[in-house]
Each structure stands twice: as C-alpha cells, then as structure tokens.
Design a protein that fits this description.
The structure holds 2 protein chains of 2 kinds.
Chain A (H helix, E strand, L loop, with lengths): L12 H7 L1 H29 L2 E2 L8 E2 L3 H7 L2 H33 L6 H9 L6 H11 L6 H8 L16 H13 L1 H13 L2 H9 L4 H12 L1 H17 L2 H6 L11 H11 L3 H26 L7
Antiparallel strand pairs in A: 1-2
Helix pairs in contact in A: 1-2, 2-15, 3-15, 4-8, 4-9, 4-12, 6-8, 12-15, 14-15
Chain B lengths: L2 H9 L2 H34 L3 H4 L13 H10 L1 H32 L5 H13 L6 H10 L6 H25 L3 H9 L4 H12 L1 H17 L2 H6 L8 H4 L6 H4 L3 H25 L3 H6 L2
Helix pairs in contact in B: 2-15, 4-15, 5-8, 5-11, 6-8, 8-11, 9-10, 11-15
The chains are: A mainly alpha, B mainly alpha.
C-alpha cells in the first residue's frame, strides 16, 4: 500500500511528521487528541473511580481500595446479569446470525422468488431504533390486546400464551429474540456480500463433485466465509454487551432483576442508586470481558481480517 | 457471481431433488417475510384505527381509517420538537464524525504512517467500546465544560463516537482509488493537502455519502447518550421522548403508541427508500476488508 508520498519517508514518525505536516496534524494529532479526551480519559477515569465510593454529588470521593470489587464478587445481581449476557449472546449467535446466513445463501443460490424484496424486508429493522422496536413488540405481545397471543389462541396453540415480559423464566429470552429480530439484517448483508466474493470456480468445483446444498454450505460456503463469520461474531458479541435500549424501554431489569444485563446494571447502579464507584467497577468488568474477548478473536480467528 | 452455480448443483440431480430445496426455501422465506413484515403492518394498521375499531381485535381491518391518533400523539408528546432535535443531532453529529475521519482515512489509505497499526487499534477500540462503561466520566467531562443538557454537547459526543466507523468506511473506500491519479499530482509538485483536497476528496464523495447516511441512522437510533446527558424535554431526541409511550396514559388504547411509532420512524423510512441500495450493499464489510 505504499503511496507515492512514501518515497520521502525514512520510517520514523518524526521523519514522517516533518514531511507531512498537514496529515500529521489533522490525520493523527487531532484524532488522537479527541480520542484522548473522549475515549482514553473516560476509560482511565472509570478504572480510577472503581476504587472509590462516590454518590455523584459529594465533593469528596472516598477511597475504598478493592471494596467495590469485593462487593461485586458477592453481588447476586451481578451474577444474574453476567449469566443473562451469556444467554443473550447465545441466542444472538443462534438466531440472527445463522438465520442471516441462511437467508443470504438461499438468496445467492436463487432458491427464492424476489430475493431483493426479502432482503429489503429483513434489513429494514436494522434502521429502526430499538426503542421503537421494543414499543412495537410491547403492543404485539400484550396479553390482552396483542396480536401474537390472539394468533396463538386462534390456531389452537393457546397453551403457549405467556406473560412474555412478566414471566421471569422467559422474559430475558423474549428480549433477546426481539433484539435478534432487529439484528438479523446485519449478518444477512455481511454474508450476502461475502458470498459474492467467493470465486465462482470454488462452487463450480464442488458442483462437479456432485455436492448438494447441504454439502455446499458445510464444505464450501462456510469455510470460505470464515473471515466474515469472525467479523459477525465480533459484532454480535459487542452488540450483546451493549444491550441496553430494549431493557430500558420494556422491563427495566424486572421481574426481580431477572432481565438485567451488565450494560443496564451499570446504569442502574450509577444513575439510579447513585453508587458511581460500584458502577465504575462493573464498567471495568465489562471492559475486561470485552477487551479479552476482542484480543482472543483478533489474535486467532480474525488473523488477517483487519490487515493494514 | 456464484448464484447460478449454487443452484445448478442441485439441478443436475434429478427433478425431485432440484424442486425440493427450492420449495422448502420458498416456504421458509414466506414465513420469514411474514415474521419481519407482519409486526410492521399490524402497527401501521393499528395506528389508523379509532378507539372503537381497536377493540375489534388486532387483525380486524380498519373500516374507517382516521388520522386522529396521529394528531393526538403528535401534540401529546410534542413530536415537532422531538423530530427537530433528532434531526439536528443526526445531521450535525454525522457531519462532525465525517469531518474528523476524513484526513485520518486519507493518511491510513494513501500513506505509510509509522505506527498505523496502533492508530488502527485505537479506531477499533473506539468502535467496540460499550458506551455504558464510559457514561460516568463523559458525564463529568460534559459538566466541566458546561455542555451537560445542551444540544452542542450531545452533538460532540455523537461526532466523536461516530468517527471510528467513518474512518474505517472512508479508508476502505479511498483504498479503491488507483494510486496513479495522485502520483501524477505529486509529480506536478502538489502538496499533501492539495492532493487530499483536489484529488482524493472529490473522488471520495460516494463513500462519504454512504458513511454519512449510516451515521445519520445510527444517531437517530441512539438512546443511551441522550438519556443520560439530557434533562430538559426541549433537548430530547425522539428515542428518549418516546419512552413516555410506555405508560398507562398511552397504553390504554394502542392506536396512539402505534401512531407514535410510525411518526418516529418516518424520516428514516424516507432516507431508507432513497439510499437503500447504497447502505445495504455490504459497504460495512468493505470497511473492514483490506
């Protein structure tokens, strides 16, 4: 990727900076400064704050050492939220990601009529705010007036009717599936673009070997799409760690914190319970989880996907 | 393209084997279309029903469509202000993100910046950072600069957090511009700035438009920042203002919240129709490929 400008470069940053003042200023210095203020400093400050007790108002923060972390280890709600995050991630990987792949494949293979129409329909919710999506399903899944339960009853599946947001055993899955509904379009377009990049000869060769669709998916498409899958898994992972909006608009963690996830627990502890130090400690845990998962993915699966 | 090849693989194995996957796929797709389109259609249908018609059940067709729910919810929630605010945040925030990202994208795609792996790492960090983890310090920072509960404060936050994705999208786009073009400019004695301004920038307009549109939609959808950094209703974006719809006052009859949902999504529907081809064309995956 050497450009013509690089003929001046002697490899050191100072050398580069002296030759390319404009680029160094606005391409490196300004973004770094903005990053330092709005992303770097907040991360450092969060870590710092996690060693203090602070109600957000008092001028003095009280140093408590690792007390916030010690508390965290015994906090029932932390574990519930952690497990919920894992459940949420699994639902997200199973439902929107594999379905997104399936849709992309059948469209690419021209197995359906009007593939572009289907693509549009499935992609549209990606552009909707999760607040709107949440409110929409609040209406649809309403136990009295909701369309879904009405439909279940009318086809004789009335025994499946539930308090979708009230039953502590299923409320979290309801939320995760709704989020999956809104997210499916994303893996779909990634896989669709990825399938377009697979060389035609690869599929031709498999066809000559007499491969059916099942084998085609398993032995050709999926291995070829490994980098795409890695990116999608990464996206899904961070989406699930960010899960917030649906919970805020639909359940607020209720019933009994059973639908709480880490991303919402941080907000509740900080801004509702005014325990900013504990909120910061929870944030650090999220950062550690996100960071280590990203490191593992970037190091192993994604090798080459972000080559520069 | 592999389209025909994929399908042909089944074709050569007798007619039954070729029809079966197609039939199964079509059935599956019909179900999927219903699952994805159904809720949206039901909401639009509910939004034009009168209170009496609503009680007839969710699947009853509206006999005498009315726009009364739209009028009621518009004034009840103050949608004029909410839409205007969201429009301001999305327009200005995405513009800021693109402006911040243009020169870094230029540097990363056309030049051998020493340490660019680190710059890339920072961009990815900014992209993946769960926003909830930095709410407290950001809240503090905004308070220090007296930007809490102001439109300009939220615009800055949106701009900064939109910038990493913009940089990746623009870099991906700029990488596709052939180097010969700027080589000629350099031979003529052009400076970096002139090459950026007169050569690369004009050629990047399509990429900029895609990035801007995606960012616009992202800010329109955004909720956490608006919820935490704003207190006054006159500053609320649509997503925060809409929370009120989940209250007994609005949920007595569903036509009002349904109408509110449609209103909140309408600007994006228009944008979606205008730019669908560009934003769904896998441009995001292009951003992360080399």
């Amino acid at each position: 990727m050497a450009s013509s400008a690089s003929r001046f470069d002697d490899g050191t940053f100072v050398g580069f900076a002296r030759r390319h003042v404009f680029v160094t200023m606005f391409g490196v210095a300004v973004p770094l400064l903005v990053f330092a203020c709005f992303i770097g400093y907040p991360i450092v400050y969060t870590i710092y704050l996690s060693f203090f007790e602070w109600n957000g108002m008092a001028p003095q923060k009280k140093f408590v050492g690792l007390a916030n972390y010690a508390y965290l280890l015994h906090d029932k709600y932390f574990y519930i939220a952690l497990v919920n995050n894992a459940k949420w991630l699994i639902v997200s990987l199973v439902f929107p990601v594999s379905l997104g792949f399936l849709i992309a494949y059948v469209m690419k293979a021209r197995l359906v009529f009007a593939p572009s129409l289907l693509r549009t329909i499935v992609f549209f919710p990606v552009t909707m705010s999760l607040i709107a999506v949440g409110l929409m399903f609040l209406l649809i899944l309403n136990p009295v007036f909701g369309a879904f339960d009405t439909l279940l009853r009318s086809v004789g599946l009335g025994f499946l009717v539930h308090e979708w947001f009230g039953d502590y055993r299923i409320a979290l899955y309801t939320l995760a599936v709704i989020s999956g509904w809104a997210f499916t379009g994303m893996p779909m377009i990634f896989y669709f673009a990825g399938l377009g990049d697979v060389p035609k000869e690869t599929f031709d060769a498999a066809r000559i070997e007499g491969a059916g669709h099942w084998r085609m998916i398993r032995s050709v498409a999926l291995p070829q799409l490994r980098p795409v899958t890695a990116i999608i898994v990464m996206l899904t992972l961070f989406e699930s760690l960010r899960a917030f909006d649906l919970i805020a608009v639909l359940t607020k963690g209720a019933p009994f914190g059973m639908t709480n996830v880490l991303g919402y627990l941080v907000y509740m502890e900080s801004f509702w319970n005014s325990r900013f130090g504990y909120g910061a400690a929870l944030s650090v845990v999220i950062l550690v989880i996100a960071g280590s998962l990203a490191a593992v993915l970037l190091g192993k699966v994604l090798k080459g996907a972000f080559d520069v | 393209m592999s389209d025909a090849t994929l399908n042909a693989s089944a074709m050569r194995r007798g007619s039954f084997a070729s029809v079966l996957p197609k039939l199964a796929a079509t059935l599956l797709m019909l179900v999927l279309a219903a699952v994805w389109l159904g809720p949206l259609l039901l909401i639009v249908m509910t939004s034009i029903k009168s209170n009496a018609e609503f009680l007839a059940g969710p699947f009853a067709l509206p006999r005498s469509p009315t726009i009364q729910p739209y009028i009621d919810v518009w004034f009840g929630l103050g949608f004029g202000t909410l839409l205007r605010n969201s429009l301001i945040y999305a327009t200005a925030g995405s513009a800021l993100a693109v402006m911040l990202a243009l020169v870094p994208a230029f540097a990363l795609s056309r030049m051998n910046v020493p340490g660019r792996k680190w710059i890339f790492g920072l961009l990815l960090t900014g992209l993946m950072l769960p926003q909830q983890t930095v709410l407290i310090p950001l809240y503090d920072t905004l308070r220090t600069f007296h930007l809490l509960d102001t439109k300009i404060g939220l615009i800055i936050v949106h701009g900064v957090y939109g910038m990493p994705l913009q940089a990746l999208i623009l870099r991906g786009f700029m990488t596709t511009i052939p180097p010969e073009i700027e080589k000629a400019a350099y031979v003529e004695g052009a400076t970096d700035f002139q090459v950026f301004w007169k050569v690369i920038l004009p050629l990047s307009v399509p990429g900029i438009l895609v990035g801007y549109t995606l960012n616009f939609i992202a800010i329109w959808k955004e909720f956490v920042f608006g919820l935490v950094f704003l207190n006054s209703e006159e500053n609320f974006p649509v997503t925060v203002g809409m929370l009120k719809l989940n209250s007994d006052r609005y949920l007595a009859v569903f036509n009002l919240p349904a109408a509110g949902l449609v209103i909140s999504q309408l600007p994006i529907v228009i944008l979606f129709i205008l730019t669908y081809r560009q934003i769904s064309g896998g441009n995001l995956s292009g951003a992360v490929k080399g």
